[in-house]
TrEMBL record:
One of its GO terms (biological process) is cellulose catabolic process. Pfam families: CBM_35_2, Cellulase. Gene3D superfamilies: Galactose-binding domain-like (2.60.120.260), Glycosidases (3.20.20.80). Belongs to the glycosyl hydrolase 5 (cellulase A) family. It comes from Niastella caeni. This is Carbohydrate-binding protein. InterPro entries: CBM35, CBM6, Galactose-bd-like_sf, GH, Glyco_hydro_5, Glycosyl_hydrolase_5. The keyword Ribonucleoprotein does not apply. Coiled coil: none annotated. Keywords: Carbohydrate metabolism, Cellulose degradation, Glycosidase, Hydrolase, Polysaccharide degradation.
């Protein structure tokens, strides 16, 4: 019964009665973020990357991945009118109430909204009168809806200006910056529009306690002192233009709103605070971003030192894009240091986030054309492809990544394993090899290469195939097979665990569907922590073959089966159970 409830929780939605009682405004108390009762609040959230602001990699488009370039590419194929139709469908489908209901059910308590300014106001070069701000209803209406969904679920909503007027960095995709036009740092009109936008937002939401805070400028990355050799501001020592803009935004917000936390980010993608501190507001939080490095105290020591020096809270506003092992390690590290977090992103075309958006054949043709690997698709093919893509962002059309959710919410606090799915064993039952248990490395499985630490040691680890699951176990696709996913790149000492529910006790032959083309492989099998079969030889094959492990005793009810790889290079597709009469 417990397993059934867990599966329901992870699969989709638990109906949660609406909670409308105010949590109270979040505020700063020393090094803590607290609610209106003074209780410490540890934010566990997700960023809605890709909704208001697309980045090319989220659509599997590499290179020029700025949204305005993506839009141009789409318009080139299907025309401006149908491009507008696509973007309207994208905004309507990507994030809905069911997404926020799901986040609540899964255990999150906050949402970070990456905003594109052009949904709220016109670009400066399209304003009819210089210095005037034209406000657009679409962005505010979308934000109002999202806030209502968050309120219904008792979740905090953090507003994040992800794409500022002109763009705030030389990493162009992040802020949809057009380098042919003046940046945020090169245009006073862009600066004033940014300040005005924040004042408008603060005025609108000043009395909304479910607005958790204002993350006023995402990942600035600009070399003020040495724009040629330090274009992303990693070595910047002064950061005065950035500090001045953030101070001006703060002043504008405080003219209309004294209740909400203001969250600031350093230069160099959020981490370079040289010259920016001390804080200039008594309700201010420092944000930092963390990707692809070790999850050790040393990896966050810089922000811990800053927190201690200035007696101010810190929040990890963005992290993710890695494997489940990394996710669990990161959450453990952060929460042990009382640092809340917002995972990035909720959904995309890709495997390492809570929801995976599915590809379609027509969009594959569009991608092939864009990447120079195929002919130009017809307008009808391209239109169908992008519209199917927009529909694929709806939660019910995505693949809910139960392993990712488990790694974020349960595994940081539990060594226990749970079944990936219910494996009910009767005569003839087949268990797919990729459906091993959910749990930590060393508990549900063991893999020697588990995560991407390339910032720290240059290695890009994790699932080499980047499909189906997001653990260290390597999984690839065989498009010619019905059960198309299989475990691959196994190494000596690795193992997989399966929790199975046997209907009738007895002896079973266990038949492995395997492949090893280099040399004979060696396997071992244990059942309920007892080694049942040692040093099984898996003969070298020229294709997929059956390996029969005979007369294995299984008890009625739950059994734990572990398959050990005593040599590497064995590919495994499935495990079949045949009862011996």
């Amino acid at each position: 019964m417990l397993h059934f409830r867990m599966i329901l929780l992870l699969l989709l939605i638990i109906i949660v009665p609406p909670q409308t009682e105010a949590q109270g405004f979040l505020k700063v108390s020393g090094q803590q973020i607290v609610n209106d009762q003074g209780q410490n609040v540890l934010l566990r959230g997700v960023g809605l990357g890709g909704w208001m602001l697309q980045e090319g990699y989220m659509l599997q488009l590499h290179g020029e991945g700025m949204q305005h370039k993506i839009r141009e590419k789409i318009a080139d194929l299907i025309g401006e009118e149908k491009t507008n139709e696509f973007y309207n469908a994208w905004l309507s489908n990507h994030t809905r109430k069911i997404d926020i209901d799901s986040l609540k059910a899964w255990g999150f308590n906050s949402v970070r909204l990456p905003m594109h300014y052009n949904l709220y106001t016109l670009p400066v070069d399209k304003e009819r009168e210089a210095g005037k701000q034209t406000w657009l209803e679409k962005g505010f209406r979308l934000t109002d809806s999202l806030l209502a969904w968050c309120k219904a679920n008792n979740l905090y909503l953090i507003l994040d200006l992800h794409a500022a007027p002109g763009g705030q960095g030389n990493d162009l995709n992040i802020s949809d910056r057009d380098p042919s036009k003046p940046s945020l740092w090169e245009s006073e009109a862009n600066r004033q529009k940014t300040i005005a936008l924040w004042k408008k937002l603060a005025e609108r939401y000043a009395n909304e306690p479910f607005i958790g805070g204002y993350d006023i400028l995402n990942e600035p990355n600009w070399g003020f002192e040495d724009p040629v050799n330090d274009k992303n501001g990693l070595k910047e020592t002064g950061n005065q233009p950035l500090k001045q803009l953030m101070m001006d935004i703060t002043k504008a917000i405080r003219e209309v709103d004294n209740k909400h936390m203001i969250i600031i980010e350093g230069n160099g993608w959020g981490n370079n605070y040289n010259g920016i501190l001390p804080p200039w507001d008594n309700n201010m939080v420092l944000s930092f971003h963390k990707y692809w490095n070790f999850n050790t105290t040393e990896s966050i020591q810089h922000i811990l030192n800053t927190r201690n020096k200035y007696n101010v809270p810190v929040w990890l506003g963005e992290t993710g894009e890695n494997s489940n092992v990394w996710f669990t390690e990161a959450v453990q590290l952060l929460e042990a240091n009382n640092i809340g977090w917002a995972w990035w992103p909720l959904k995309k075309l890709g495997n390492n986030n809570p929801m995976q958006v599915k590809l379609n054949k027509e969009y594959d043709k569009v991608l092939a054309h864009w990447l120079g690997n195929g002919p130009r698709p017809s307008a009808a093919e391209a239109y169908n492809g992008v519209m199917q893509l927009a529909a694929a962002t709806r939660l019910e059309n995505t693949i809910i990544k139960r392993d990712v959710l488990d790694a974020l919410i349960r595994q940081p606090f539990s060594q226990a394993t749970i079944p990936y799915k219910a494996h009910i064993i009767v005569n003839g039952t087949v268990v797919n090899a990729v459906e091993y248990d959910l749990g930590r490395n060393g508990a549900a499985y063991f893999d020697t290469d588990t995560a991407d630490y390339h910032i720290s040691n240059g290695t890009h680890g994790g699932n080499k195939g980047r499909v189906y699951r997001n653990d260290g176990v390597d999984i690839e696709t065989d498009p010619t097979a019905t059960d198309k996913y299989f475990v691959t790149h196994t190494e000596r000492g690795e193992w997989l665990q399966y929790t199975i529910d046997v209907v009738k006790a007895g002896h079973y032959n266990i038949i492995l569907n395997y492949n090893t083309t280099k040399e004979d492989g060696k396997l071992s099998l244990s059942v309920n922590n007892n080694t049942t079969a040692k040093s099984i030889t898996a003969p070298k094959t020229t294709g997929w073959q059956a390996l029969d492990i005979q007369k294995i005793a299984l008890k009625k009810g739950p059994n734990t089966l572990r398959l050990y790889f005593n040599s590497g290079g064995i590919h495994l597709r499935s495990i079949q159970f045949t009862a011996i009469k």
